[in-house]
Amino acid sequence: MPESFLHTEKDIFQQIANGDHDAFTRLADQYWNNLYGQAMAYLKDSHKAQDVVQEVFLTIWKNRSSLPDIERPQHYLYTMAKNRILSEFRKKLMIPIPDDVEQLQPATDLPADERLATKQLRELVQAAVNQMPPQRRAVFELSRQEGLKYEEIAARLGISRETVKGHMIKALAQVRTFIRHALRLLFQIFF
User: Fold this and answer.
1) pLDDT category of residue 115 using cuts at 50, 70 and 90
2) pLDDT tens-digit readout, 123-182
3) C-alpha torsion angle, residues 21, 25, 27, 31 (rounded to 10)
4) Distance between CA 103 and CA 181 in Å, rounded?
């Protein structure tokens, strides 16, 4: 990247730090579409993508006094967008895993992108289940796929209810950890 280009962006950051609204508008005009495209590519939701970009520029303006310290303005903008995109994915991970794995079946009345996301989530859950020790996997599958209660699972497997509960706690934690790790790897590849 040419030094003059970086110098110009650094100058714009300095102007914004000084409260220059026109410089802020120039920066937004220059980067809005690229940041929006980046957000859309991952979020597949125009409203969330717009929110991400708006948050980036809102943060730029709110924290404008720190802008002169930024050495690579373009990198700073894209990193801010990446972090907000990751935050959106983290919000999705906060959604509890349904008690009934059948709830993860793609409903035919959902839009195609939501059906695909649900299918991919099901595949991630199954990949995590496949890595579980045999007894933990059996407990998880009996609970989530067959809908059995802890007492029923305990009777079927010949273990205590508390052992079943312990396996479920560990199984759910393992699934969540697996999904988080998969998303981190995905973003390391693409960002």
Assistant:
1) low
2) 778 888 899 999 999 999 999 888 899 999 999 999 999 999 999 999 988 888 887 777
3) 150
4) 23
Q: Does the structure show a pLDDT above 60 at 104?
A: no
Alpha helices in the chain (DSSP H): 3-17, 21-43, 46-62, 73-93, 112-130, 134-144, 150-157, 161-190
Is residue 115 a contact partner of residue 107, using CB atoms and an 8 Å limit?
A: yes
**Residue 38: DSSP 8-state:** H
| 49, 39 contact by CB (below 8 A) | yes
User: What is the spatial distance between Cα 38 and Cα 182, in angstroms, rounded to a whole number?
Assistant: 20
- φ, ψ for residue 164 (rounded to 5)? -60, -50
Q: What CA–CA distance (Å, rounded) separates 145 from 147?
A: 6
Taking phi over 0 as left and psi of -120 to 50 as alpha, with beta for the rest, 128 belongs to: alpha
